[in-house]
Write a sequence for this structure.
């Protein structure tokens, strides 16, 4: 009986809020953020943005900066596109989307060059390539062109974090097996292989294939495998 | 109305002006900071050839050390000091773009020379920038020689796109350490440079050879060509400085 009451109440709430405004984090909006993290992940399910997932994931720290850059670009380009969606001429909408992304990416790259030159040297080329990251343009075309600004920001965060956590996991393992370390360049830096080697008395050999892009492919494959087994996802 | 040609054209123009304006403002605003970063990067590389600076976190401390201990001049291929360029502007060694100079004829290039002083103000090392081609893209290096202008004190390589784990290893300390103590002149006083041999794990190498990098033979060759050609270009300066040293004794 109590569940019935709860259901009725929920319906009532849903009816009531529909009129004035949807709650800031309604069920629908939470799904906008949470879906891309797992069930509709841009990398592992939609298999977009693979190129940068291979290129920048040799070490954890550059990957983190890359993630922040992508989240920034995706959120703000979603917002700007959504704000302009009613005045963008349909015939040149893809060019307009590209211009928005390219502007934001150039901004990120300039800021990186001014404040973190070492990172700029490592990531320079790849930050520019965010422009061609299919995830960003995919979100603009599929979501921001048809939705309100706030929802678009949420969608941007969802897809951005969905991209980020995958490449961070890949980077963690590539650095561990390829370099024998974790979190180099951050306060958590730790030489895993060096320490274990010290205990055993013989230096451990790192795995060269992990430094190569092949390593990223293998790790991505394993992640996709695990995720699809868990979610019961099947290709149609 | 939103589909008319005029609207599309006006929209595109408006968009370009707004975004273009925003970008140029950022670019102009951040330029001084970026220039400072590039300068710091160059000075870090120069100091990196003679001392370990990886533990120094504060950029100002690096700049302080640099200002106290490093002097610089620019020479031409004949070893003569160049003060002014063709337009009469002063030439600053730190601002000389090695990459741009690399594209010029050897005779027309500017060659910066950095001297590293010890605490009592005597020359401890001469540092020469070098530039060349690796397997995929450019490679560069700062080579530091002791006061005898023959024995390598330290070397700092950089690269743009060498393969990680193979050619990119030239930036690792273990590879760069192999050059320390090697000599560029043979017993007869001829310039022979230092050659990285093919393959890894060699023993009994001469004073003019270093162990190679397995799987990165072409990067190694690039390094060899880079060192040999630039040392050749600096040889006039080296001879001149040597004769000055003997004259002052």
């Amino acid at each position: 009986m109590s569940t019935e009451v709860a259901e009725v109440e929920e319906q009532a709430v849903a009816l009531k809020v529909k009129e004035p405004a949807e709650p800031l984090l309604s069920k629908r909006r939470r799904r906008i953020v949470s879906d891309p993290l797992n069930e509709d992940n841009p990398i592992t399910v939609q298999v977009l943005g693979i190129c940068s997932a291979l290129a920048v994931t040799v070490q954890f720290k550059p990957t983190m900066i890359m993630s922040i850059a992508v989240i920034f670009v995706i959120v703000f380009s979603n917002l700007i596109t959504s704000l302009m969606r009613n005045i963008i001429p349909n015939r040149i909408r893809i060019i307009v989307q590209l211009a928005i992304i390219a502007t934001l990416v150039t901004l990120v790259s300039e800021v990186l060059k001014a404040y973190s030159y070492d990172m700029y040297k490592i990531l320079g080329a790849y930050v520019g390539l965010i422009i061609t990251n299919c995830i960003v343009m995919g979100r603009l075309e599929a979501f921001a062109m048809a939705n309100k600004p706030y929802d678009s920001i949420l969608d941007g965060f969802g897809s951005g974090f969905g991209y980020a956590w995958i490449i961070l996991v890949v980077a963690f393992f590539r650095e561990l097996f390829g370099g024998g370390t974790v979190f180099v360049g951050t306060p958590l830096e730790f030489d895993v292989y060096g320490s274990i080697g010290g205990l055993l008395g013989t230096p451990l050999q790192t795995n060269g294939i992990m430094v190569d892009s092949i390593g990223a492919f293998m790790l991505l494959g394993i992640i996709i495998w695990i995720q699809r087994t868990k979610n019961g996802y099947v290709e149609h | 109305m939103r589909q008319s040609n005029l609207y599309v054209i006006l929209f595109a123009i408006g968009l370009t002006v707004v975004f273009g304006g925003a970008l140029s403002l950022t670019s102009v605003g951040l330029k001084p900071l970026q220039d400072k970063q590039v300068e710091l990067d160059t000075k870090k590389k120069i100091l990196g050839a003679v001392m370990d600076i990886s533990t120094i976190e504060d950029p100002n401390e690096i700049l302080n050390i640099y200002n106290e201990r490093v002097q610089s001049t620019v020479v031409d291929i004949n070893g003569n000091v160049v003060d002014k360029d063709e337009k009469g502007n002063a030439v600053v060694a730190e601002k000389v773009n090695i990459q741009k100079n690399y594209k010029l004829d050897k005779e027309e290039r500017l060659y910066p020379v950095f001297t590293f002083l010890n605490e009592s103000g005597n020359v401890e090392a001469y540092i020469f920038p070098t530039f060349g081609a690796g397997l995929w893209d450019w490679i560069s290096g700062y080579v530091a020689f002791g006061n005898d202008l023959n024995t390598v004190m330290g070397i700092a390589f950089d690269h743009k796109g060498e393969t990680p784990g193979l050619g990119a290893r030239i930036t690792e300390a273990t590879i760069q350490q192999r050059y320390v103590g090697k000599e560029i002149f043979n017993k007869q006083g001829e310039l022979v440079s230092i050659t990285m041999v093919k393959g890894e794990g060699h023993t009994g190498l001469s004073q003019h050879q270093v162990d190679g990098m397995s799987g990165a033979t072409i990067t190694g060759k690039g390094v060899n060509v880079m060192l040999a050609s630039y040392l050749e270009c600096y040889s006039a300066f080296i001879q001149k400085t040597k004769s000055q040293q003997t004259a002052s004794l």
